[in-house]
Amino acid sequence: MNWILLGEIAYALLAITVILKVLYDTRSTTKALAYILFIVFVPFVGMIFYFSVGINYRKRKLYSRKIIQDGPIRNSIRDAMIAYSESISKSGLLDNRYQKLSEYIRQAGSSPLTANNEVKLLINGEEKFPELLKALENAKSHIHIEYYIYENDITGNAVADVLIKKAKEGVEVRFLYDDFGSHGLGKTFIKRLEDAGVQTAPFYKIIWYAFANRINYRNHRKIIIIDGNVGFIGGINMSDRYRNDLQKDNHLFWRDTHLMIKGISTSYLQYLFLCDWNFCSPVRLDYDKIYFPDQLQNSKLENDVVQIAASGPDSAQPVIFYSLMEAIGSAKKNIYITSPYFIPGESLMDALIIAIQSGLDVKILIPGISDSKMVNAAARAHYTELLKYDVKIYQYNKGFVHAKTMVIDDNLAIVGSANMDYRSFDLNFEVNAMVYSQSIAKQLTDVFYNDIKDADLIDAEVWLNRPTYVLLWERAVRLLSPFL
User: What is the pTM for the complete model shown?
Assistant: First the structure.
């Protein structure tokens, strides 16, 4: 009996120690409470779960980006971009209401505000991949590609064939893929690339002794940089499923959005790639002017103003989350959101409720068909809260909507890889393009209204009067939101 008592005391002390660690390390109150309840009510399993997926790596700086050291070239590029960014901010090209948003991203994310950009909106894989293949074929200096999901299928091999061809022509080609998201590539695929001269690296390779943590912190970015002046960014991964033109009649229609950007804003995408590459690859990639060509005087392009917002476990602040909060707060007329995983958390919920109560037109497009029952249930609990305030929520029924976009009024369009959930805001490496452009905002608004033609508007009265057991289940699952 004494041994049992000692064991109980030891466990109680251990549990208290872990709870204190949760309180000290976890920034989010909601998340901290969820971990503590799990630890208290599920002995041992709760602690194992916390140490597997809950440690705050942002605070621990596990993914330090100090590996890119200051040097004459980097300093000259940085100083030129800082000066350029400040000049654009003062030029009048940026609407005054977005000055705070732009300055926040510049200060917290070290991302310059840029003009001299030409932005093209690409809807679904059938628009993206022809543009991508054409741009890859025209590469002269280098191709840098970084993807969460890259599959060994028709689309993946078509792009790989071009990468191999360009590498044999002497173009520098680097291929960075997430080891979890692209787990199906296989050694043969990678070897084919490497044999042709393509440099490859898996992002944060999964190793059995660190399996849980390495699954939890993934590179969800989808970016390509060509010759330092053409970039691709958005939600479309490298896979056949994103191309409706390849599928049979009974396939699940896939609705997604991407951007092709030509111009100065690609310099920050390039910086992100260098950071991620040097974290994963034994072959160091240093600053070189070939990767950052001087585009400051390029007058041939359109004058779209673009800023890249990126964040992850390596950032001191959740830049994407805060930038979305500021964008919503800056709205004067409308907010149109498309998100496949809508679990925004209390702060964003409050921001949206304030917007609708202030008379703004707030519309949200979410999937009617979801690929995760748990995530869908947690999201539906958030719909219930918003519908009380007359937010218009549309369920897309033509297929699966995977786009991650936001339109603010008629002059700010946001397109990227970040979902509106805890994982994108706090755990994954993500990147969004903030496009301060009436033309792109108008195009994305038109796309949004076209999408809701294939969606059902949720009837608030019917929704709020669903059976109590359904509402209770959704609220219960909502407690797991920080883990989903």
Answer: 0.88
